[in-house]
Amino acid sequence: MPDVIVSAADLARALDGPRPPRLLDVRWQLGGPPGVDAYRAGHLPGAVYVDLDAELAAAPSAADGRHPLPDVADLQAAARRWGLRAGEPVVVYDDSGAMSASRAWWLLRWAGVEDVRLLDGGLAAWTAAGGSVETGDVAVEPGDVELSAGHLPTVDADGAARWADEGVLLDARAAERYRGEVEPVDPRAGHIPGSVSAPTTENLGDDGRFRPVDDLTARFAALGVPEGDVAVYCGSGVTAAHQAAALMMTGRTPVLYPGSWSQWSNDPERPVATGE
Fold first, then answer.
1. How many Å apart are CA 146 and CA 138, to the nearest integer?
2. Dihedrals φ, ψ of 41, to 5°?
3. 80-92 burial: b if 16+ Cβ within 10 Å, else e
């Protein structure tokens, strides 16, 4: 199984090596502002900005959710704009504990890019390790990467319901959203009946890095997650990718529900549960 994360120190060495990785800056936050301004103010040298809403998702809709999977041809066109080349390693990062960068990591893995990793701790870890930053935009030569869909498993709403009934379905949102106490963006509050609350933030330590693998393994075991396949969802398929990364680090196979709560809650025929 390819490595999921890379440390700032190891990334610095790789950038000085014979096969330096392509760097993608995926700063984003729910409700904005756009991450491009922060990117232009300071980013890893040579990093290309990736727009999560425009390049890592199809157009939102009630039927498909707020961040549907992009058409693979559109994703390939975007990846070539970022300069991705066949067989080239890729490292993605953000400034929010990999919560948005994980979407790029998962999508590229789903589309067949094998060597793509998350910078553990993101921009803060890079600068804390003495890494330099540069400002402004970065122009790159177009890449030639060939992408194809389906290299990581997914489920639709019916599949998510089956996982909740017959397996384990993890809800990666904040616990108060799972319980239905608050719902800032979607039409109904609560969770998919039978799903298990597993806030993505608990994958991280206080320093914004992923917790050690042994800690993550113990966490998921305590949640009843088996050693094999497990399904995950979140609000719109973004932070569920972070959960998928943590699960993959423990040797499990995450099955992602891309439509997530934004799709489920827009369907009045779908049941909703609240509380613990």
1. 22
2. -75, -20
3. bebbbeeebbbbb
* Residue for token pair 């439509």: 259
Tokens of 110: 């789903």
Whether 261 contacts 239, CB under 8 Å: no
Instruction: Give 225-265 as a 3 state SS string.
Output: CCCCEEEEECCCCCHHHHHHHHHHHCCCEEEECCCHHHHHC
Token pair in block for residue 55:
């390049």
* CB 122 within 8 Å of CB 54: no
pTM over 0.85: yes
Place of tokens 């869909």: 149
Tell me which residues are annotated as active site: 234
Contact yes or no for 227/252 (Cβ under 8 A): yes
Give start and end residues of each alpha helix (H) in the chain: 8-15, 36-41, 52-55, 72-81, 101-110, 122-128, 157-166, 175-179, 213-222, 239-249, 260-264
Query: Please, what's the b/e burial string for 125-138 (b: 16 or more CB within 10 A of its CB; e: otherwise)?
Result: bbeeeebeeeeeeb
- Tell the burial category of 118 from Cβ atoms under 10 Å away from its Cβ (0-12, 13-18, 19+): buried
Who's near 159: CB < 8 A, 6+ residues apart? Answer: 231, 255, 257
Write out the two tokens for 186.
Answer: 């979607």
Q: What's the average pLDDT block by block, 10 residues per block, for the chain (276 residues)?
A: 88 96 94 89 98 97 97 98 97 97 98 97 97 96 97 98 97 98 96 98 96 97 93 97 98 97 98 96
Three-state secondary-structure class, residue 137: coil
Helix (H) or strand (E) holding 117, with range, is: strand 116-119
The C-alpha atoms of residue 44 and residue 227 are separated, in whole angstroms, by 36
